[in-house]
Amino acid sequence: MKKIVLFFVCCTFITNAQTARGVRIGYIDMEYILEKVPDYAEANNQLEQKAQKWKQEIEVKKNEIKVLKDNLKVERVLLTKELIEERQEEIDFLENELLDYQEKRFGPKGDLILQKTVLVKPIQDQIFTIVQDVAEQRNYDFIFDKSSDLTMLFAAQRYDISDYVVRKLTSSQKREEMSKKQLKAFEAKEELEELIADNPAVEERQKKLDERKAARDSLIAVRQKAIDDRKAEAAAKRKKLQEERDAKKNGTVIEKTSAEGSKEAVEEKDSPTSPSADDKKTAAEQARQKLIDDRNKKLEERKKALDDKKKKAAADREAAIKAKEQKTEKKE
């Protein structure tokens, strides 16, 4: 009852203060935030496994006590008073031991509570630090914990900053693993998210920019695909033309696919039909090659005749020199 009265007093104070100036109020859900923290979830899972193990041990002890009680109930008529008291004392001792064990594991100061406190405290400290930073950055006057003992009869969703605290908590963990370049880009992204959160108009403008960028990227992808298709089509035509030329040079038969999907056998030689454009082109190339060969042959013949002429002139000179020398010798 006192907590409810205290809450209404706080609300009244906040309402009065809000009439005097603009008051910003926010709240968080600590349980929701803790569920979103990976380290806490993993450690809490391990703790739950321990708790299940403790519960199993308790069940085993309960079953042992139950067996002793059942045996005593059945054998009571056959036992002496001293044996009955002895067994009853053993049962009482085991029951007290079981209660102590339950208190040790699951009591208000038991292992489960203590380990949960140890597990939660470091994360809670980080969350409290982040909440203080958020309150200073965004000028919050009050930030409540929805999961605390303070009863909140109503809380509008727009005042919930739990997700923002989760992002801050996650980003603080990521910062330690980032390089300077990655950290700079991450901080810029965070600033943009904060600006969007504080100003809905910025969010709308950013949404339009993202839509334009997506449309532009889509148009570029379509154009690039059309270019790639044209390149592939041209390459296929060049390959097909080269195959036809090679087939005609070798005198082999190739298959030509029509637009309707039918195929005709086309033979380069011994065809009764009129020559095609490729046949004419091949004949022209052969004629041109023949002219080149004839020209080369004539050049070779001319070169050979010139060499023979040079050799004959050299022989004549040598013969003249020898004749002159013989004539000179005769005069002497």
From TrEMBL:
The keyword Coiled coil applies. GO terms for biological process: protein stabilization. Pfam families: OmpH. Residues 37-104 form a coiled coil. It comes from the Bacteria. One of its GO terms (cellular component) is cytosol. Residues 237-249, 257-332 have a biased composition (Basic and acidic residues). The keyword Cell membrane does not apply. InterPro entries: Chaperone_Skp, Skp_dom_sf. Keywords: Coiled coil, Signal. GO terms for molecular function: unfolded protein binding. Residues 237-332 are annotated as: Disordered. Belongs to the Skp family. PANTHER family: CHAPERONE PROTEIN SKP. This is Periplasmic chaperone for outer membrane proteins Skp. It comes from Flavobacterium cucumis.
